[in-house]
Design goal:
By secondary structure, this protein is an alpha+beta fold. It contains 27 helices and 22 strands. The longest helix is centred in the middle third of the chain and has 44 residues. InterPro entries: Anoct_dimer, Anoctamin, Anoctamin_TM.
C-alpha cells in the first residue's frame, strides 16, 4: 500500500556516498515537498521541520507507556544527540539530524505517535518511543492480512478418559497452569477494518497482541521515507541504522525477566517465560509454545517447536542406541574373534607385517587386544539392527513433524499466510539502475543487473564456493599426510623394545589409536577455523549476488553454508569410512600417496573404531564450543556494557534503557541455530552405524540447547522483531535430502567399513569349525582366515624393515590373497570375491527394503491430521458466512429505498415497480 507512493532508489552505494559527500559541501537544508510534509502534532510550521520534543522521564522504570500512562510503547528508536557534543564532521552529523527529523515526521504522517526521552545513564542518548493508535493498527492489520478471532472454536477435540488419566500423570512435566494457562481456541479470519463488528473484540487494548503491534510498527518503520533527492525517495529504518542515524531500533520486553512487574496492565510474559521455560530448573518441562509464539512471533515459535519435537524423537533413538551400546559392551569379552586376537596361543603367535616402510617393526596380533575389545562394542550384529531402525526413525521423524507442523500452522494462523508481495531489500533497491518489463504485471520495473550480469554474478558465486570446497579437500589431504607421518612416528616409538618408559602404555595405546586421536583433534581445529572464515565469504558472495527479497537472501545463504559445512564437517568422516585402508596394496607392493607417503591401513578389525573416535571428538567439541559461544560471550558482553554505562545508584533506569543495554539479535536471526542442529542431524543419521551413542549425545546436547537458547533470547538479547513463518523453510528439503543419503551411507559403512559382512560370509560358508560342541555354528578360526601370508624375502629394499626381532620367514597382513608359492601368488582369492559379492548384495537389498518401507510410511501417514482438516473446513465456512455473505446485507440495505416503491396487485400480492431492477429474493 505505502509502497505505491515510494519510488525505488536507483543509486549504487558508491553514488550514494558521493552524493552524501556533495551534501556535506552545502549549508542549506534539504527542501521537502509541502504535500508530503506531516502536519501532525505541530511538526510542520511553515516550511520548517521541527524535531520531536523531549519529555522528562516519569520515574516509573517498569512502565510500558508514554508519560501519560495511556499510550502503549510499540517500538523504541535510539539516537545520539548531536547537539550535546562537538563533532569534527559537523556537516555529516547535520545531515543525519535532517534525515532523522524527516523520518520521524514521516512516521507521524503515516499514523504513528512519538515521544522522546533523554537517557538516564548517558545524556548524549535519546530514546524515541513509538505508539500505534487504534485506527493505525486496524489499517495495517488489514494490509498485512493478519488473522484475528471471529468466534470461539466449537470443534475442540474431545479427549478420551485414558487421556485425562495420562494428563494427571504427566502434569509435573508441563508449565505451571497458574502462570501459563492454556490459550483459548478461536476460529480466525483475515482482518477487515470495515467489518470490525464481526470480530471477537472484548478489549481493544489486548485485541492486537504486543507481537502483532511490534510487527506492524516495524512494517511502517521499514517503509517510511527519510530523504528526498530530486524524484527519488530514500526510506527504511535499516538504512538509517547502517548509516548511524539511529543506534538501535527494537520492541520492548514487557518486564524484567526475574522480577514480576507491578505496573497495571503489564502481561509479565517475559517473567513467565523465564520462570517456566528459560530457567535451568525447568529443563524437564515441556515448552509453552503458544506463549513463545505470542511473545516472539511465529518464526521463533516454529524453531523451538521443531527443536523440541526433534529432541523428543531423539529420546526414542537414544534408548535404542544405548541398548545397542550396552549389548556390545556386555559381549566384548565373549566375542569369538576378540578372544582369538587376545589369546596368546592364537593372536600371540601371529606375527603381523610392518604397516610402514623401514622404521616400522613386526608386531604380534595380540598387541591390539584392547582395541579389538573396544571395536566389538560398536561392530556387532546389534549395529545392523540399529542402522535399519534409524533409517525408519528418520522417516517417522520427518512425517510426524509434517503432521505436527500442520497443527501449528492451523493453530497459529499461518495455513494461508497471504502477506502482500515481499518487498525488495534496501541493498537490492539501492543498485537498481536498469529497466525491464515485469513478465507478470507487464509494468516496467528497475533491476540492479541485466540477464547477462546476473549470470556473471551467479557464476562468480558458484566459482568461489567451489574454490572453498577445494580448499577443504586440500586440508583433508594435508591431514591425511599428517596421519601417514604420525603413524610412522608413533609406530617407531611405541613398537620400540628399548624404550622401557613406554612399556605401560603399549597395552592401551596403539599407533592407530594415537594417530586417530591426534588427527581428529587437528581436524576439529581446522574445521572450526575454516568455518569462521567461510561464514564471512558466504555472506560476501550472497551480498554480491544481490537477492531481491529477504527470503531469497536467506535461502541462497542457507544453501551455500550448508553445502560448505557438509563438506567441512563430514569429509574427514567420509575419508575414514570409505577411503582409508581400501587401496593399500600388500606388503611387497604398497600403494603410495603423492608417490612418497605409504597409504595407511586399518586395524585387523577395520577402521570402524577410528570413525567412532572421529565422530565423538567432532560432535563433542562442536557442542562444547557452541555452548561457550551462546552462553558465555553474550553474558560477558552485557556485563561489560552495563559497567560502562551504569548510572548512579539513585537513578531508576527505565524499561527501554534496560533493553538497550542488552545484545542485539544477529541480522540472520535463527540461521545459525538451524544450521547447528541440521549439522548435528547429519551426524546422528549419516554415520550412526559406526556410533550408536550419537543419538544419546545429541539428546543430552539438545536438552541443554533448548534451555540455553531460551535463556539467551529471554535474558541476554533485546526482544526480537516478530516475524511470520509458515514452516522451517529451506531446512525442510535439506533434512529430507540428508535422510535419503543416510540410508546409503549406513549401508555402505556396514558393508565396507565394519567387519560384519566378512564375518557373515565366513559364518555361513567358510567356517573351519562348522559346528560347536552342541552342533551350532561358531566363528572359531575367523581371525586366521581373514589374514593373508607374506614371505618377508619379497620385501623391496625401500620397504624392508631395518630390524627383524623375530626368527620368522613369513608375516601376516589384513587381506584375502593367495599365499606365496601359489600359482596366483598374492592375487585375490575366492573368499575375497565372495565377500565383495555379499557386500554389494547387502547394500542393494538393505537400500531397497528401507526405501520401500520409507515410501510406504510416507504414503500411509497423512501430512495433515483429520481433526485439523475438519477445523480448517469449519473455519473457511464461518469466514464465508460471517464475512463474505454480509455483502448481501449491505446490498440489500443500499437498495431498500428503491424497493419501497411498490404497489399491490389486484390479488393482494406485492409487485415490484418498473424501476429497472431485476432482483430476486
Amino acid at each position: 500500500m505505502e509502497n505505491d507512493i515510494l519510488e525505488m532508489e536507483s543509486l549504487s552505494d558508491a553514488e550514494e556516498l558521493e552524493g552524501d559527500a556533495r551534501l556535506e559541501m552545502i549549508e542549506e537544508d534539504v527542501v521537502y515537498p509541502e504535500e508530503f510534509l506531516p502536519t501532525y502534532h505541530g511538526i510542520q510550521e511553515g516550511s520548517t521541520v521541527v524535531k520531536v520534543q523531549l519529555a522528562d522521564f516519569n520515574g516509573k522504570p517498569d512502565s510500558l507507556f508514554f508519560n501519560d500512562g495511556v499510550r502503549r510503547i510499540d517500538f523504541i528508536l535510539v539516537y545520539e544527540d548531536e547537539d550535546r557534543k562537538e563533532f569534527e564532521k559537523r556537516h555529516t552529523f547535520a545531515r543525519r539530524k535532517r534525515r532523522r527529523e524527516y523520518f520521524e515526521a514521516s512516521l507521524m504522517k503515516m499514523g504513528m505517535e512519538l515521544e522522546a526521552t533523554r537517557s538516564v545513564a548517558d545524556d548524549n542518548l535519546v530514546f524515541v518511543k513509538v505508539h500505534m493508535p487504534w485506527d493505525t493498527l486496524c489499517t495495517y492489520a488489514e494490509v498485512l492480512h493478519i488473522k484475528l478471532p471471529i468466534q470461539p472454536n466449537d470443534l475442540s477435540s474431545q479427549r478420551s478418559p485414558w487421556w485425562h488419566w495420562l494428563s494427571v500423570v504427566t502434569k509435573p512435566f508441563y508449565p505451571d497452569e497458574s502462570l501459563i494457562s492454556k490459550e483459548a481456541e478461536f476460529f480466525t479470519a483475515p482482518f477487515e477494518k470495515d467489518r470490525l463488528e464481526y470480530f471477537y473484540v472484548k478489549d481493544r487494548d489486548v485485541f492486537f497482541t504486543s507481537s502483532m503491534r511490534s510487527r506492524m510498527a516495524y512494517y511502517i518503520l521499514s517503509r517510511a521515507p527519510y530523504e528526498i533527492r530530486g524524484s527519488m525517495k530514500k526510506f527504511g529504518i535499516r538504512k538509517l541504522l547502517d548509516g548511524g542515524v539511529y543506534k538501535a531500533a527494537y520492541p520492548l520486553h514487557d518486564c524484567r525477566f526475574n522480577v514480576k512487574s507491578q505496573e497495571e496492565g503489564c502481561p509479565n510474559e517475559r517473567f513467565r517465560l523465564y520462570s517456566e521455560w528459560a530457567h535451568p530448573k525447568s529443563f524437564y518441562k515441556m515448552q509453552p509454545l503458544d506463549l513463545i509464539r505470542k511473545y516472539y512471533g511465529e518464526k521463533i515459535g516454529i524453531y523451538f517447536a521443531w527443536l523440541g519435537f526433534y529432541t523428543i524423537m531423539l529420546a526414542l533413538a537414544a534408548v535404542v542406541g544405548l541398548s545397542c551400546f550396552i549389548y556390545g559392551y556386555k559381549t566384548q569379552e565373549t566375542s569369538t574373534w576378540s578372544k582369538e586376537v587376545c589369546d596368546p596361543e592364537i593372536g600371540g603367535k601371529i606375527v603381523m607385517c610392518p604397516q610402514c616402510d623401514q622404521e616400522c617393526k613386526y608386531w604380534r596380533l595380540n598387541s591390539t587386544c584392547e582395541a579389538s575389545k573396544k571395536l566389538c562394542i560398536f561392530d556387532n550384529f546389534g549395529t545392523l539392527v540399529f542402522a535399519v531402525f534409524m533409517a525408519i526413525w528418520v522417516t517417522l521423524f520427518l512425517e510426524f513433524w509434517k503432521r505436527y507442523q500442520a497443527e501449528l500452522e492451523y493453530q497459529w494462523d499461518t495455513v494461508e499466510f497471504l502477506e502482500q508481495q515481499e518487498t525488495p531489500r534496501p541493498e537490492y533497491e539501492a543498485k537498481c539502475i536498469y529497466e525491464r518489463k515485469n513478465p507478470v504485471t507487464g509494468v516496467k520495473e528497475k533491476v540492479p543487473y541485466t540477464a547477462c550480469g546476473r549470470c556473471v554474478r551467479v557464476s562468480i558465486g558458484i566459482g568461489t564456493v567451489l574454490f572453498w570446497i577445494l580448499l577443504i579437500l586440500a586440508s583433508i589431504v594435508a591431514i591425511t599426510v599428517y596421519r601417514l607421518a604420525a603413524f610412522f612416528a608413533f609406530s617407531a616409538r611405541l613398537r620400540a623394545q628399548d624404550l622401557k618408559e613406554l612399556e605401560p602404555l603399549k597395552e592401551y595405546v596403539t599407533p592407530q589409536m594415537a594417530t586417530a586421536v591426534t588427527a581428529s583433534l587437528i581436524s576439529f581445529v581446522v574445521i572450526m577455523i575454516l568455518n569462521m572464515l567461510y561464514e564471512r565469504v558466504a555472506i560476501w558472495i550472497t551480498n554480491f549476488e544481490l537477492p531481491r527479497t529477504k527470503t531469497d537472501y536467506e535461502n541462497s545463504l542457507t544453501l551455500k553454508m550448508f553445502l560448505f559445512q557438509f563438506v567441512n564437517y563430514y569429509s574427514s568422516c567420509f575419508y575414514i569410512a570409505f577411503a582409508k585402508g581400501k587401496a593399500v596394496g600388500y606388503p611387497g607392493r604398497p600403494v603410495y600417496l603423492l608417490g612418497k607417503y605409504r597409504n595407511e591401513e586399518c586395524d585387523p578389525g577395520g577402521c570402524l573404531i577410528e570413525l567412532t573416535t572421529q565422530l565423538s571428538i567432532i560432535m563433542g567439541g562442536k557442542a562444547i564450543w557452541n555452548n561457550i559461544q551462546e552462553v558465555l560471550l553474550p553474558w560477558v558482553k552485557n556485563v561489560i556494557f552495563r559497567k560502562c554505562t551504569r548510572a548512579s545508584s539513585q537513578k531508576a533506569i527505565p524499561r527501554w534503557e534496560q533493553d538497550y543495554q542488552l545484545q542485539p539479535m544477529s541480522k540472520l536471526g535463527l540461521f545459525y541455530e538451524y544450521l547447528e542442529m541440521v549439522i548435528q542431524f547429519g551426524f546422528v543419521t549419516l554415520f550412526v552405524a559406526s556410533f550408536p551413542l550419537a543419538p544419546v549425545l545429541a539428546l543430552v546436547n539438545n536438552l541443554f540447547e533448548i534451555r540455553v537458547d531460551a535463556w539467551k533470547i529471554t535474558t541476554q538479547f533485546r526482544r526480537i522483531v516478530p516475524e511470520k513463518a509458515q514452516d522451517i523453510g529451506a531446512w525442510q528439503p535439506i533434512l529430507q535430502g540428508v535422510a535419503i543419503l543416510a540410508v546409503a551411507t549406513n549401508a555402505m559403512i556396514i558393508a565396507f567399513t565394519s567387519d560384519m559382512i566378512p564375518r557373515l560370509v565366513y559364518y555361513w560358508s567358510f567356517s573351519v569349525y562348522p559346528y560347536g560342541e552342541h552342533g551350532s555354528q561358531t566363528m572359531r578360526g575367523y581371525i586366521e582366515s581373514s589374514l593373508s601370508v607374506f614371505n618377508i624375502s619379497d620385501f623391496s629394499n625401500y620397504s624392508r624393515p631395518l630390524s627383524a626381532p623375530y626368527n620368522i620367514t613369513t608375516c601376516r597382513y589384513r587381506d584375502f590373497r593367495y599365499p606365496p608359492g601359489h600359482p596366483k601368488e598374492y592375487e585375490y582369492n575366492i573368499y575375497y570375491w565372495h565377500v565383495i559379492a555379499a557386500k554389494m548384495a547387502f547394500i542393494i537389498v538393505v537400500e531397497h527394503i528401507v526405501y520401500l518401507t520409507k515410501f510406504i510410511l510416507s504414503y500411509v501417514i497423512p501430512d495433515v491430521p483429520y481433526a485439523v482438516r475438519e477445523q480448517m473446513k469449519r473455519e473457511k465456512y464461518l469466514t464465508q458466512v460471517i464475512l463474505h455473505e454480509t455483502n448481501l446485507k449491505l446490498v440489500t440495505k443500499r437498495l431498500k429505498p428503491a424497493l419501497d416503491v411498490t404497489h399491490k396487485n389486484s390479488d393482494g400480492r406485492m409487485a415490484k415497480d418498473e424501476i429497472g431492477l431485476d432482483l430476486e429474493f
